[in-house]
């Protein structure tokens, strides 16, 4: 699924600067609105559907953003703040000048977040039974570097600086992590195929290999995939999706048509939507040979490629100017052929070998743990049997003692019924 990066609240963009919401959510990757005069009725602006950033501190991030946006001084400082200054923490220093009300609310938010993290730490300690408590505490804190834990009470410049840098770093690594997940997916799929072949006899393996090769050929047999972001690719969208004459193709009009939120920029989601026609040439969910997980990886590759070529200021948005400049380049008019995933295996044989070795080690460890647990179970059963035997012996001893006591309390049998004569 294409990753959505829309923002729930207005994300305003000023000349020469980025909105705080755009900044913190993937450093401007989130959708924004063009700056409008104060007199514009903002209730008529259609807000994008709220999307989770995928960060574990998403709620805290959103709440901090919401309150900072309410401070006029802080918003005005964004006018002349460029991306590198933001990343280096220069914007965070402006926190000293926000209103008392905003600072008070940020203090409260931080205390709540610190309490939440402490509850998580306590829960982890409880689960682990207190073992290696200090180490676990430090390891868990390491995951929450967006907070200054030395000051759990007030929200300071360092907190905003940490939050900006953490969100920037985490979200910029998002695509990289997705690629790694896809690689593991592909290797696991191949591993399972090879393991299945081991369960078959010679004839079965031969048929399965032939079927596998047939599926690969069928998947590779598709119409030419245009180079993403090229004139041919965009013209195809213009003609087939927009229903317009390819001879009348106009880049500026095309941009306006597909800038769906009208903010003057192509965000990642809007870019990815342009590749649907190309992907449909290769992938069909009804076909056995087509893997939809691979389709989304292909979509990601296309979007990354276009961003690398067109997004010259690296703010993860494509402006109209950047787009128009790109349409004048030779690469736009005469692009190289695009190699799809089947032409670019996600992993090397060396990586596959290491992956299978890792799986083998995990399986061995799991088997050893299973064996250890089985031995522990047998030992517990043996001990239980001993306890049951001891319990039985004790019960028998108690019953024997009770019988002896009863016998001692009764009169001798020969005296029963006898009369005594004087």
UniProtKB/TrEMBL annotation:
Keywords of the record: Calcium, Coiled coil, Cytoplasm, DNA-binding, Golgi apparatus, Guanine-nucleotide releasing factor, Membrane, Metal-binding, Phosphoprotein, Repeat, Secreted, Signal
Protein name (record): Nucleobindin 2a
Membrane topology: Peripheral membrane protein
Superkingdom: Eukaryota
Cell compartments where the protein resides: Cytoplasm; Golgi apparatus; Membrane; Secreted
GO molecular function, one term: guanyl-nucleotide exchange factor activity
Signal peptide: 1-35
Pfam families recorded: EF-hand_7 (PF13499), NUCB1_N (PF25434)
Region feature Disordered, mapped onto this chain: 190-230
A GO cellular component entry from the record: extracellular exosome
Database matches in SMART domains: EFh
Residue span(s) of domain EF-hand: 246-281, 298-333
Family that this chain belongs to: Belongs to the nucleobindin family.
Coiled-coil parts of chain: 157-184, 352-407
Biased composition (Basic and acidic residues): 190-216
